[in-house]
Write a structure and sequence with these properties.
alpha+beta, Arc Repressor Mutant, subunit A, three-stranded antiparallel β-sheet, two-stranded parallel sheet, 5 helices, about 35% helix
Length: about 150
Amino acid sequence: MGKIYSTKIETKIGGLVLIAEEDGLIKIELNGLLPEGTEGNSVTKIAETQMKEYFLGKRKEFSVPFKLEGRDFIKKVLLSVMEIPYGTTVSYGYIANRVKKNAQRAVGQSLSANPIPIIIPCHRVIRADSTLGGFGWGSRIKEFLIRLETENL
């Protein structure tokens, strides 16, 4: 791991800490603390601008560079989620069928490991019965993000 850069922004869901390395965003924390002795860089600046636009309903896709670490299955799940269009939702089963048949539970576990929520829009994945399902930042925030997107289509 290289040098860490970070910045904190206030949003409609609370303070978000954007954490990056030189060449990509690696983590977004809700109500997190800035790592001591860090400052922002060009990646955190791009992420800050794009996140602010998103919460204003003006950004529907992100182009901030990011880096994913971890198992190939988790990366496949997260990259598959990136293909879900703004303002729409799909089921865990839909993602499982794209990545590995009958792996809904593994998809849910992979989404819970998403280090870059919103930019990798795991909030767009819901249960087959149209209930929300889990979300690392809680169901109220998941519901808020889905509503924000559907209202700004």
